[in-house]
Amino acid sequence: MSLHCDTTADEELVHIPDEILESPRAGVKRKGGGPRLTDAQRMEILQAIETAVEAQADNKNLLKPKIPTKRLADEYGVTPAAIRKLVKQKDKFL
């Protein structure tokens, strides 16, 4: 079997835009690529949650704060998931 390449035929070159040639995930935001909390901000958030929990009659569960994580997230410019993760891993920061 042999391959034949016809070099006399007019071939139309197709330009492929760079966007198509890039990685398929190039436009996708990477996990953990958002803003970060400083150590001082982490301590402020944990203190605010602890204070709110102590003000409640049932202060056994720090994982269920009465301060909405959305409000704290908006205040500090991070996602609610970042606040939940901070509370869940509070022992690393205290």
UniProtKB/TrEMBL annotation:
It comes from the Eukaryota. This is Uncharacterized protein.
